[in-house]
Amino acid sequence: FAFALGPSAAKLIEGMTMIAVRRPFDLGDRISIVNCTGAPDNTGDPGYHDTWIVEDINLFTTTLRLSRSNEVSTVNNGSIANTRIVNHGRSQNALVNISLPMRIDATPDQVQVVETVLKQHVQDNPRVWASLVSFTITTVDPAKGLIEYKARVQHVKSWQDLLPILQARGDLEKFCTEILMKLDIHYEGCGMENDVYIKELPDQQQMFGEAATFPRI
User: Fold this and answer.
1) Contact (CB, 8 A) for 28 and 158
2) Running DSSP on this structure, what letter comes out for residue 46?
3) Which DSSP helix (H) or strand (E) runs through 140?
4) Left (φ > 0), alpha (ψ -120 to 50) or beta: where does 13 sit?
5) Is 47 exposed, middle or buried (0-12, 13-18, 19+ CB in 10 A)?
6) Inter-axis angle of helices 162-182 and 108-123, to 10 degrees?
7) DSSP letters of 92-111?
């Protein structure tokens, strides 16, 4: 096909076919565009990545607004016809991933308490959360004294409504951290030793001028 029409014409037709036949997005949809040859990125939720709002569509170009910076871009439809387009507006009930880093000496009973309290919290907030989907171990690192669990929680809204989901995720992360701290199993990480030696502090007047005054400590 590309040999018969030439690469430019083939791209143009692919873009027109995408808009007229496939219709992967509509005006106002929140989308992500990724290379279809790569593996899906499972390192985080859409809130941590670039998403675009569809501002305008025609057979030849699509105008997009970058959510995190409000920048507006216009792309040729042919250039995105062979990419993987994720439509967050059509993906109902967003799944939110919460990391729960615990000390490796946390007992099974303590872990069970965390899961039970988290499940009860989800049930007590039906206008925000639909269900606790899973609660699993993702990392075990004896050298660091770390065992990490991941809670996957389903929100009542889709990733189209990004800001309310990000707010709810932040509140849930805070709630989970408070649980771990109350149980004294929260993993604090390895502290870094400060071995910086300062021989002599510079004179304040040399750095900031004659008018510089600082409170005594």
Assistant:
1) no
2) G
3) strand 129-141
4) alpha
5) middle
6) 140
7) -S-EEEEEEEEETT--HHHH
- Consecutive sets of 10 residues in the chain, 217 residues long: mean pLDDT of each? 63 88 93 71 62 94 92 92 90 92 96 97 97 96 95 95 93 96 88 48 54 50
Spatial contact of 79 and 55, defined as CB atoms under 8 Å apart: no
Q: What residue has token string 């300062």? A: 198
Please report which residue ranges of the chain form alpha helices under DSSP H.
2-5, 7-17, 77-80, 108-123, 162-182, 204-208
Task: Please name the residues in contact with 14: beta carbons below 8 A apart, sequence gap of 6 or more.
Answer: 77, 78, 81, 82
φ and ψ at residue 82, rounded to 5 degrees: -105, 15
Nearest to 150 by CA among 105, 111, 207: 111
Q: Are 15 and 74 in contact, with CB atoms under 8 Å apart? A: no
Contacts of 75 (CB under 8 A, 6+ apart): 61, 62, 64
Q: Which helix (H) or strand (E) holds 37?
A: none
Sign of the Cα pseudo-torsion (104, 105, 108, 111, in order): negative
Single pTM value for the model: 0.72
Question: Residue 47 belongs to what H/E stretch?
Answer: none
User: How far is 148 from 133, CA to CA, in rounded Å?
Assistant: 17
Q: Which amino acid is at 99?
A: S
